[in-house]
Amino acid sequence: MDMSRRTVIAGAAAAGLAAATVGTAGPAQAADGTSGSAAGSRRPVKELFGKLADGTRVHRWSLENGGTRLKVLSYGGIVQSLEIPDRHGRHRNVSLGFDNLDAYVAKSPYFGALIGRYGNRIAKGRFTLDGKSHQLSVNDGVNSLHGGAKGFDKHVWDVEPFTQGSEVGLHLHYTSVDGEMGYPGTLTAKVTYTLTRHGDWRIDYEAGTDKATVVNLTSHVYWNLTGEGSGTIEDHELTIAASRYTPTDSGLIPTGELAKVAGTPFDFRHAKAIGRDIRAGHPQQVQAKGYDHNWALDKGITRRPEHVATLHDPSSGRTLKIATDQPGLQFYSGNFLDGTLTGTGGHTYRQGDALCLETQHFPDSPNHANFPSTVLRPGQTYRTTTIHSFSA
């Protein structure tokens, strides 16, 4: 099998309701709400979060394990909040988001969302597969971004909670029909969010199709390890295990070049404050208004998740480590937050108040033969895993 496709293809076969605890299979729940076999864990709790215009109910699920507290919406698989402790054991939400459904529907810049059918950009919303041209929904100027005008982030997913041993989590299911947003094939997607006994947040993606298609799923959490609404992330220290990145044109579409980071503001091979070089005036930064690029990870595609990035906040002591089997990491420095959005804590979000670290295949891969392939065919299974580990 082509090494560039190993992680894409894993094998041929291979409002007014009160919150209610869901009766999932697992050990009996203690009086304090903790699960008997999972230290510090709680069974997923479901509550009504709101209703869409057509009356569809959207629920919020709350999970806790190993000191991490996670709240997830059935709408878009959105991480509405993620709380972790600082060096003094004080919890704070470190993910940007809204406190109501209407804001997510009307104006969210993908806060916390599951992204599909194709994460990031495809030039002019076009690609050719097996000699046939496909025109996708365009929603970012002339380009297609994060699956088009109604990507996976704007659909209600079916959610199944689970507790298993020392882990707690959610299985999320969505079926994207043939032709949705212009993509060929009916794609059946399953994404699993798991909180481990150590407080790690693991995402397992899986998908199958009945026609040849392209797929690139990711998560779009906006991180601020000091706390949501606390201000700039420019003092956060970032490390990315990548010697190259993919420069873009004025539409933030990769040119196809794999450029060296050495001697440029894009060199994060050793930990440095994000603000140190963010205003260095590099032409790539000027057109992106900061960092909004894909780093080609040195490890490439791997069979298992490997550590690729570390984000550290000196003020709180919180550290996020990311491991993935994917070949790319999109670092976005919150360049287009403009003070018009008010988050869960009542604070407005301004430029640089958060950052995204999206594990992925490269943007616009269907149009670049030198990039790892994102093609998925009938009988093959798309599988990939990303793990977020927290400490302080």
Secondary structure blueprint with pairings:
Blueprint: E1 20-21, E2 42-51, E3 57-65, E4 68-73, E5 79-85, E6 91-93, H1 101-107, E7 113-115, E8 121-122, E9 126-129, E10 132-135, E11 144-145, E12 158-164, E13 167-176, E14 187-195, E15 201-209, E16 213-214, E17 218-220, E18 237-240, E19 244-246, E20 259-260, E21 272-273, H2 283-288, E22 292-296, E23 306-312, E24 319-324, E25 328-332, E26 341-342, E27 348-349, E28 356-360, E29 375-376, E30 382-391
Antiparallel strand pairs: 1-2, 2-3, 3-4, 4-5, 5-6, 7-17, 8-11, 9-10, 12-13, 13-14, 14-15, 15-30, 16-29, 18-21, 18-23, 19-20, 19-22, 22-25, 23-24, 24-30, 25-28, 26-27
Short summary of the structure?
About 5% of the residues lie in helices and about 40% in strands. It has helices at about 100-105, 285-290; strands spanning about 20, 40-50, 55-65, 70-75, 80-85, 90-95, 115, 120, 125-130, 130-135, 145, 160-165, 165-175, 185-195, 200-210, 215, 220, 235-240, 245, 260, 270-275, 290-295, 305-310, 320-325, 330, 340, 350, 355-360, 375, 380-390. Strands 12-13-14-15-30-24-23-18-21 form a 9-stranded antiparallel beta sheet, with no helix packed on it. Strands 1-2-3-4-5-6 form a 6-stranded antiparallel beta sheet, with no helix packed on it.
What tags apply to this protein structure?
nine-stranded antiparallel beta sheet, mainly beta, 392 residues, disordered N terminus, six-stranded antiparallel beta sheet
